[in-house]
Amino acid sequence: MLLLHSWGCSEAHEHTAPAIDPRDSVSMMISYGVNTLISDSGVIKYRIVSEQWEVNTLRQPTRWEFMKGIFFEQFDEKFQVQGYIQADTAWYFDQQRLWKLRGRVYVRNMDGLIYTSEELYWDGVTHELYSNVYSRLVTPERTIEGTCFRSDETMTRYTVTNSKGSFIKDDMDGSQKDEQASEGEGLDTTTVVEQPPVRPASQKHKKN
Questions:
Q1: 3-state secondary structure of 10
Q2: CB 159 within 8 Å of CB 175
């Protein structure tokens, strides 16, 4: 409680503020040196490795926090590695089944595709990855840069819009486009689709 005095003949006034409950920001569980397997529908799908894992069930929405970095391994039904994901910081909002990855996000699948960005969302309900910030995607055939990225979880079906990049000639129709591609001039607005694009996310998620 803070007591302030007004000088002169006026009376003193008290100014009070509501107390802050420290439990609002304190994690309920903190684990160090984490190396654990995560299952989905009874099937082991991921391995999580992190220096520190905090669980906070008092903040809304409830969340897991990985403030010192995170590394994922993705597995298929036969427990074969399908890809890797890592980031400097991560949050998992368990009620929404939504991951938010931030800072030097790196994704690689078994086809040799490499994705990098500063922010990436991973929706466990729609099984999609998406980002609305600058992203760079490199495959054995092409390099693509854009500000709107969406993909399935295995990075085998993806779209990149508002993009530019270099492509192999077979990817583009017409001699003029081939010449632009060979010179490294990407179109101002390009959509690259390995297979039919995935369904857009049904809702937008606010940034943390």
A1: coil
A2: no
- The model's pTM is 0.68
DSSP state of 132: S
Residues with Cβ within 8 Å of 75's Cβ and at least 6 positions away in sequence, in order, are 44, 45, 46, 47, 81, 82
Strand partners, 137: 115, 144
From residue 170, alpha-carbon distances to 83, 84, 166, 193 in Å are 27, 29, 12, 14
Of all helices (H) and strands (E), which one includes residue 85?
strand 81-87
- Separation CA 43–CA 187 (nearest Å): 42
DSSP secondary structure string for all residues of 25-60:
TS-SEEEEEEEEEEEETTEEEEEEEEEEEEEESSSS
Report the distance separating Cα 101 and Cα 87, nearest Å. Answer: 6
Both tokens of residue 183? 């010179």
Q: What is the chain's length?
A: 208
Show the tokens assigned to 156.
Answer: 């085998």
**Mean pLDDT, to the nearest integer, of 13-33?**
64
Mean pLDDT of the chain: 77
Distance CA(141)–CA(42), nearest Å, equals 37
